Amino acid sequence: MAKPKAKLKRKISKLKKKIKGLKAELNASTSIPAVSPLAPPSGFPVLPEISGVTFAAGAAGVKYQGRDDVMLAHIAAGSAVAGVFTRSATRSGPVLDCQTKLAALQKTDTVADAMGIVVNSGNSNAFTGKFGDASVEFVSASAAKVLKTSPENILTSSTGVIGEPLPHDKIIAVLDDLSANLSSANGAAAAGAIMTTDTFAKGATTSVEIDGKTVQIAGFAKGSGMIAPDMATMLVYIFTDAAVTSAALQHMISAENQRTFNAITVDSDTSTSDTLLAFATGAAGNTQIIGADSVDGQVLATALHDVMRELAHLVVKDGEGATKFIEVKVTGAVSDDSAQTVALAIANSPLVKTAAAGEDPNWGRVVMAVGKSGEPADRDKISIHFGDILVAENGWVSPTYTEDAGVAYMKNQDLTISTDLGMGKGTAQVWTCDLTHGYITINADYRS
Amino acid sequence: MAKPKAKLKRKISKLKKKIKGLKAELNASTSIPAVSPLAPPSGFPVLPEISGVTFAAGAAGVKYQGRDDVMLAHIAAGSAVAGVFTRSATRSGPVLDCQTKLAALQKTDTVADAMGIVVNSGNSNAFTGKFGDASVEFVSASAAKVLKTSPENILTSSTGVIGEPLPHDKIIAVLDDLSANLSSANGAAAAGAIMTTDTFAKGATTSVEIDGKTVQIAGFAKGSGMIAPDMATMLVYIFTDAAVTSAALQHMISAENQRTFNAITVDSDTSTSDTLLAFATGAAGNTQIIGADSVDGQVLATALHDVMRELAHLVVKDGEGATKFIEVKVTGAVSDDSAQTVALAIANSPLVKTAAAGEDPNWGRVVMAVGKSGEPADRDKISIHFGDILVAENGWVSPTYTEDAGVAYMKNQDLTISTDLGMGKGTAQVWTCDLTHGYITINADYRS
To answer: Could you give all domains of chain A from N- to C-terminal order, each with its CATH number?
Structure first.
């Protein structure tokens, strides 16, 4: 029986609708959003200009085309410097070079001559053997020349593919131009040039009063997962005009790093290139801080903490495939270290992270993660909150808990999972994101 | 302009084809195969009957409907027993109960009276507080009655959802029937009853000559990931007719467990209920083995190893979403322990596992995982093989390596990643699977 044309047309319209639905579903299951849904709606912050620090960014074509991939920074003579680095046994040539140079630069309270930073994206110069070490030397020598300082004062970072020779000539070729364009207003451009698989540039800033002077702190970071697909690295650069010795600054940065960048995890994998460098020019004019524990030292440390925590959160929020930002709090552990181990066991658990992705208030997986951490815990003393909702206590689900409340809570974009172990006074707080199809798509479906 | 009907029909046929294609694509991206693609094509093996051991399986409706979910086993008086358990700090009531009972049962060379095993699937009786402990007691008492032995001789396991009260009455209600149907031929049915999200039942067997007698070993296991969605647990039961003391059997099981079940990982998460129990009836008639290091002891240990390794591999091959079986070998470490830590760092790395899923010969991620393990390693001494292909050496990609060879190798279903650290003589071998969209679908999209 022949169908009337109108009927056929309705059928076509119906089929087209179905195709649209299927396409949307397929897209939702495997697509990667251009920008993380957790990116701050306000965009990159306005970074204050830090007196004594200038930046330039440019396109060297290391790997990416049509975008900036090298940043140069100049830090005035008389500044303090501090850094923390990956503890990976296979850390890259640039990291080893930074560690050696930093030890020498920190022998005096501040560095007599100007310092420079060169960062490239697109190639991490990691696992590139002796050739990679030579590349660091070439770049340092050339940057020293254009910045009119010594190669020992040049700190370099590289981020991108592992195991390919760094085309250092391309980087060296743009240094003259970059040095001609150095400006204290170029922080945002510098933050953009160091991105690899980041979906947004990450910046943070604050200011505090120290010794009657206004002290500015500005920083930027890159990182999208502890290590992105073939793209090693979390890189962080922080600048302040505070007057502080290198030793005191190092003390603050090391301590705050534990509570910020060492308290985030995307996939438990560790980059071979993680680098955090901090510089203090002293231009604010406060009396030089020589002790991290002095009143002024504590004020500066707290301000550094704020900037570092904000940057750490932004790295998690750009976690590969992330759709949820998760704060994991642990209290009542036998010590702070024990609490941190438990918190990281929860935050790194694929089953906790997939439960978050599926908006499943699966507190059993939290119990499981506590158990596997190897830290002292007693089944019958654990209590678990999702947000303000008491989920489990006394070794079992709480009598006040309802699955409806749990399910409703898990729909939030920002989640807090709190676990009290009831054993002691140790506390910790770490941050992570969920584990989604997007993570698999980025890391498995992607071919370098 | 009106379209002729034939044209409209062609259009409909085209749209339908498109829908079929989209559905197939969507399916491939998120579907879970009914049976793991890594399941052995030969199916469940024919298990030999072990004299002195009988099984029965039945449907109690603990959670699942229309399938067996309880198994009962009876082990003849005069048998030896051994076990290993999860080290989780939040282990379940049944595990704690087994550990207590086992310590008492092992006080003599063999157990004077009959022993029994009761295992249910559908509910893990984990994180169920004092109520859960009581459930274990009720089940043990009832099983002891039907098996005409003491409750202290009944070992129980539960596997399934965490944090829900075990409906022990349902289990107790079927015990009479089960005891009436005990048979040495029911091993396969027992293996089926203990499955949760397993996509296939897992069995293994071997036989050896000891002291002029043929000794049989048969075992079965369940597990699909270290912990499946809401379904805790890897459970393993091994039976032999060898004559051996409980102490010697325990020594063998503990040692071989390190090289088999403790050498596999699906997602690094640890169950609150992992249990391995081994029983030896002595019916083979060999002179009782009293030392694990004796010649006969070593023969039995090797045979136990073969069965345990086979079962461990089957658990990995049923890993959630698994499409590749990966052997990770580490040599040249400073010690065997160090090698094991490095091997597990590689096997647990989400980036290594997603690279395998994407058939990406991404050796940089292996270098990263070695680096993050925290074990002694030297970038310039590491060499990496994918199968027989030398990929990296002397701190860099091997001059003989071609990306084409690497890509071709990664298309295999069984992969071997070998890393030599060049530091010492420590070796280790662990097994894992890849990390795919299937894992996310099972664990995130699934709602309990």
So the answer is: 53-317 (3.60.70.12), 325-445 (3.10.20.340)
